[in-house]
Amino acid sequence: MKRVLSFAIIAVLGACSSESATAPDSRQPTDLATVLREMTLPSLTGVPAALTGVTVPVPTPVAPANCTYSASVQGFQCPTIVAGGLTITQSYTLFDAAGRPQAAFDANTTAAVRSKASLAGTVTDAGTRVTIDQVQDMTLSGLLTSTHVLNGTNVMKMNGTVANGGSTLPVAMTMTMTMSNLVMPTATTGAAAYPLSGVITSDMTVALDGGTSISVRTEMTFNGTSKVSVVSTIGGLSQRCTVDLSNPASTCA
């Protein structure tokens, strides 16, 4: 259960629903780089690989100055990144309060940012070798209000072998993760910031040792602290527990 659960926590990325306002709010970001950093939420993207046995590099937030606006797609294309055996492509689109695309960020009118990313390649680490194909679609909205919200999806496929003591185990995994109404913390620059509320749901199918596949559904509910309520369901049987995201060794009690 520990390894299966950890897959559901890895590489959390978000999206959002939009809420407009007629005047700037005290939480209104002053620049696009701040918005993109908020979307990564280090406390979640940095969930330790010790829980999974697989190290997946997480790219730093996009530097807006490196991305180019494309009128044909009404969005910004960013340079391709190659790191740790992975190729990462990223893009983003800006929207005003009416949902219209914008050609430039404006702190007074940009209400939401939608970011897309794809990640593909092979990761090798201490006897573990896995091929990853991941597509993420996220939006951060409510930028003109005091409530910034993440909603989105993350679809990931992983195949390869995972180190297990002195041997390796073949593993094949597919996962669809959905972020629902994650309310972002007021302070997002530190690793100790966690969503104030919202749910992350993941549906996974995992095959170990080339044997029978196991389907797992996991729901994580946030409350502003590192301690996340987790419900995992396997074969109709559910386990409810609390996982402390600030503790790499934390497991279900």
In short:
The chain is mainly β and 253 residues long. The protein has 3 helices and 13 strands, in the order H-H-H-E-E-E-E-E-E-E-E-E-E-E-E-E.
Task: Kindly report the oligomeric state of this protein.
Answer: single chain
User: What is the helical fraction, as a range of percent?
Assistant: under 10%
* Percent of residues in β-strands: over 45%
Unreliable segments of 5+ consecutive residues: 1-26, 46-55
Q: In angstroms, what is the radius of gyration?
A: 19 Å
Number of strands: 13
Structural class: mainly beta
Return the average pLDDT rounded to an integer.
Answer: 78
**What's the total helix number?**
3
The sequence of SSEs as H and E is: HHHEEEEEEEEEEEEE
Largest sheet: 13 strands, antiparallel
Could you give the distance between the termini?
12 Å
Q: What is the overall shape?
A: globular
Provide structural commentary.
The protein is mainly beta and 253 residues long. 8% of the residues lie in helices and 48% in strands. The protein contains three helices and 13 strands. It has helices spanning 2-9, 32-40, 42-45, and strands at residues 68-70, 75-77, 81-83, 86-96, 101-102, 110-125, 128-141, 149-164, 167-183, 197-208, 213-221, 227-234, 237-244. Strands 1, 2, 3, 4, 5, 6, 7, 8, 9, 10, 11, 12 and 13 form a 13-stranded antiparallel β-sheet that branches.
